[in-house]
């Protein structure tokens, strides 16, 4: 029903426009006799009268082309002004929104770019004995205790801490709890060690932050890689 009504309105408006155009056209289109101008006669020296510099079309064209030549500074400034009046306000608004959102939810935007929610790191429950070893940086003993309990995930973490400790003691890297693994890689001066060192850091990230469940078979491979690298130091 609505489509038929719209179709009727379109036809009606079309007829109205046609009739309006027809009414606008006068019946007698011939000009009145009193407006018919008589034929004019031109003088014989007409060409000589219009032969001056003021009537030379070429000069006018050249002047017109000169005026049309764009002025680069003014063109550039006009584009800059157009940017600040059109695009810049929206860009500034986006920056302000970004700053406000960042201040409200913090610096971690990984949830926005990932389809999965950020995984919560498992709580590490340590005994008083393990805490004592951790405070004294006795990672070798912690590795043994973790293996005895079948906690291969924490055993991998202790190997990672042992690796950083020994490399720092030998002056290969500078240990800092706020440093990232990427910073440790570039901190390593011996370039021949960077590739195997990067692989060990990758294993730790995959096991610890990826919450990969490590069994005894997996850990034997991990332990072999860490021990082999530590012997090279």
TrEMBL record:
Spans through the membrane: 87-105
Keyword tags: Membrane, Signal, Transmembrane, Transmembrane helix
Signal peptide location: 1-20
Keyword Membrane: yes
Name of protein: DUF4129 domain-containing protein
């Amino acid at each position: 029903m609505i489509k038929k009504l719209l179709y009727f309105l379109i036809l009606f408006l079309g007829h109205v426009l046609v009739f309006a155009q027809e009414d606008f056209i006068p019946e007698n289109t011939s000009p009145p006799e009193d407006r018919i101008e008589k034929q004019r006669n031109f003088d014989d020296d007409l060409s000589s009268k219009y032969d001056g510099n003021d009537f030379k079309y070429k000069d006018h064209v050249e002047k017109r082309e000169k005026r049309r030549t764009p002025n680069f500074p003014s063109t550039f400034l006009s584009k800059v002004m157009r940017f600040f009046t059109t695009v810049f306000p929206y860009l500034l608004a986006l920056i302000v929104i970004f700053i406000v959102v960042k201040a409200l939810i913090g610096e971690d935007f990984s949830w926005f770019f990932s389809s999965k929610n950020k995984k919560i790191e498992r709580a590490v429950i340590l005994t008083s004995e393990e805490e004592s070893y951790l405070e004294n940086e006795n990672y070798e003993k912690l590795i043994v205790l973790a293996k005895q309990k079948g906690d291969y995930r924490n055993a991998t973490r202790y190997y990672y801490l042992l690796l950083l400790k020994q490399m720092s003691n030998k002056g290969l890297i500078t240990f800092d709890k706020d440093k990232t693994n990427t910073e440790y890689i570039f901190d390593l001066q011996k370039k021949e060690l960077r590739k195997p060192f990067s692989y060990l850091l990758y294993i730790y990230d995959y096991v610890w932050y990826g919450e990969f469940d490590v069994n005894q078979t997996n850990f034997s491979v991990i332990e072999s890689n860490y021990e082999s690298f530590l012997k090279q130091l």
